[in-house]
Amino acid sequence: MDVIEKIQKQVDSAAIVIYMKGTPQFPQCGFSARASQTLASTGVEFAFVNIFEDQEVFQSLPDFADWPTFPQIYFNSELVGGGDIILEMAEQDTLKEAMEEAVEKYNG
Predict the structure, then answer these.
(1) In-domain check, residue 12
(2) Sequence-distant (≥ 6) Cβ neighbours of residue 39 within 8 angstroms
(3) Weakly modelled stretches of the chain, pLDDT under 50
(4) Which of 47, 45, 49, 48 minimizes the C-alpha distance to 58?
(5) Which of 89, 98, 8 is nearest to 49 (CA)?
(6) 79 and 17 Cβ atoms separated by less than 8 Å
(7) What DSSP assignment string belongs to 67-82?
(8) For the chain, where are the alpha helices, taking DSSP H only?
(9) Strand pairing partners for 18?
(10) pTM higher than 0.90, yes or no?
């Protein structure tokens, strides 16, 4: 399996996936920390991929969805964006609902 297929399999494996530096419990950058904490604050389950654990994923992910920075958040295999977008959705009170809809659609 090549790295693009591997990334596709990862984003397809859960309703919500965040590619981040570190883990939600031990983030390794401020942007990843804020994004994962914001997702966690909704109470909706999400998956994560620590990009430091796989250099191929780390190198190839920016090209996968044409998004150059981390974290990257996917709902139902589609890029939502980075941490700034998740924070904006939380401020607008749309994040939890969007996450719940993603889970419902994924499980549907």
Answers:
(1) yes
(2) 16, 18, 24, 46, 73, 86, 95, 99
(3) none
(4) 49
(5) 8
(6) no
(7) --SS-EEEETTEEEE-
(8) 3-12, 30-40, 55-64, 83-91, 95-107
(9) 48, 73
(10) yes
CATH number for 8:
3.40.30.10
Q: Which residue has the tokens 């591997």?
A: 6
Q: Is residue 73 part of a domain?
A: yes
Grouping H, G, I as helix, E, B as strand and the rest as coil, residue 27 is strand
Q: What are 20's two structure tokens?
A: 């981040």
Number of domains into which the chain is organized: 1
Residue 1: per-residue pLDDT: 77
Non-local (6+) Cβ contacts of 105 within 8 A are 15, 76
Residue 45 belongs to some domain of the structure? yes
Sheet with 47-50: strands ordered across = 47-50, 16-20, 72-75, 78-81
